[in-house]
Structures are given as C-alpha cells and as structure tokens.
Specification:
By secondary structure, this protein is of the alpha/beta class. The protein has 2 domains: about 210 residues, no CATH class; about 130 residues, 2-Layer Sandwich (GMP Synthetase, Chain A, domain 3), CATH 3.30.300. About 35% of the residues lie in helices and about 35% in strands. The protein has 12 helices and 13 strands.
Amino acid sequence: MKKILLWAAVCMAMLCGCENAEEIDERSFVMAAGIDKGNKGGIIFTAGCAIPDPYSDTTVKSTVLIREESTLAKAAEKNGEENSRGLYFGHIKSVVLGKEFLEDDKLIKQLFDFMERENDITPKTAVLYADGSAKECIEKTADMEESNNLYIWDYYKSSEENDSGSIRIDYDDMSKSLKINGACFIPKISADGEKTAISGGCVLKDGKYLLELTQSEVQGYCLISEKCVGRILESETENGKTAAEIKKVSCKKEFFEEDNTLNCIFRIKLDADIKESTGETDEAEALAETAEEQTERLFYILKINNADAFDMSDELRKENMSLYKKYGEENSFEKMNFSAQCDVNILPDGLKK
C-alpha cells in the first residue's frame, strides 16, 4: 500500500505542479472507479481515492467514497460534495463495471456520456468487468496489502514488467470496437481481500452484456494477438499432463475463399519451456492441440453469437478488401469459418517435474 500511495504522491507532484497546497487539500484524487446499477435503477458510483497531505511530498491516505443517484453524472458530482472535497479524475487508471450495469444498455450510454464530458479522464483508462459488484471489488482491492496492488493499475504495471500477459482494454479500445464492430471484449477482475486477479472476461454486443468467456477461451485471443508470453499452456489427456511456459509466439492470419466459403486460418508458432510433464505423451503435439482447441473454441462462440469482439472483420478489410466487400462488409464475420494450426517448439532448457 505504501508503494502505491507514494507513487500517487509523486504523480501529483509531477503532474500538478501548478496547483498550490490549498487546491490539493480540497481534492480527492480518484485512482479507480466502480460503477454499478442501483437498487432503484439508478447508479452506484464508487471512487477509490488517494488524498495527499498538501504539506508533505509522501504522506497520502486512501479512502473509498460511495454514492447512489439517479444518473452517473449526479453520482460522481454528489460523491465529492458529500465528503467536502471535489473529485479529480486526472489520475484515474481504471474503471470497473458491474455485471448488472452492463446488462442495461441505457445505463451504458450514461457511461459514454460521462467519459466524453469529463475532460480530465484519459481515453487510455483501463476498463474491467466484475461478475457481481464493482463497489465490492473497489472496496476489497483498497483493503489489500502492498503486494496485492491497491488500485488495480499496478496489477497491469507488474504484469507488464513480469511478462505475465494480462490483457488490457482501455476505454478507447472499448468505444471503437463497439462503434465499428458492434461488439467488444472487457477483461474480468476479481478481488477477495487477499489478491487481485484479471482472468477471463465478458463480451458486449449491441451496447450491452452478451456472454462471459473463460480464461481458457480468452487465451485463444492471447495466442492470435501474440500477447501470451509468460502464460502457462496446459494440456491433459488420458496419456498424461503437460504444462509449459510460453516464451515466444507468432501468429499469421490468412483469409481465403474456398468452395464459395470465407475462411480464416490462424497459423501459430510457439516456443515453450516445459514446467511439468507426466505420463507418456508427445509434449509438443499435446500443447499444439490445446492451443488450437482454445483458439477455435473462442471463435466458434463468437461466431454463433455474431459478436466480432476482436476486430476480425477489420483484419479482413485490411488484408483482402475484395473478400471483405463480397461477403457483406459488416456481415463478413458471421460468414467466416475459423481454424487454427499450431507448431510448438520445446526449448531444451525446460524443467521437467
């Protein structure tokens, strides 16, 4: 916790140098926000804030502010007024959206209006989904020890430093994908008071919640987007179990027409370190089959729901404009047949247990 609060204080000193002590003392600096559907159809707005000591470079306390109002704009405004401090959004790093909120397209429109109106909020603010209450997620995250990352943003920062492959979707990604494809993916966050985890996620379509994806299914996206370095790929068959850490990944997408059918094939190549291997199994073959199954499963789910959450229509447009136009442009995703071919290279210094 001290590490995050110190980071907040340093950021404030660097980015708000024009503010005097009195101005800082009148503000709560929002680091993470949670947005839920209220009990009467309104909005519950939860702000995880850092409050600096205006006369100290490092003394910062944290607090969680909660307010329910008929609209998101009112909830955010009244939240700060109720605590005699204005909310400042210039340092916000993440917004967590509760499931019930995401199931109501009218409430989601309020989110877009709010984000567009609040000039202090950067479009690069991370967006996450909570299968339950965003309020509880913010509260539990704020109660954690230093090692579990107080305000979520540091989870991503640590993941990037450790190559753990966490998917980060920001507000700009979300809004563009919904506008262009009518669908988007939002990573799922969970917090139990002891640890924070970002695993799996949900898909929005036509402006609201459509379905949830498991971590295994999301790994299919990590493979084709080359964002899986550091992740563990596991395969279990009747012949044994294999687990390997992905060290390098490349994926080439190929679009082509065959027998009057639009096809997309993902050609994936992986370098992997074996971490566990039991029984009698061809490790490379078993891992390749798992990677192919994860990728094909993901796009099967998206196709039957006609939810182009990962911009495949736009990929087709960039790669082959004639096929994009022939198969109906916006409707091309629904008409694609997806398959995957994976080659796994087992690195010689892998550890077998």
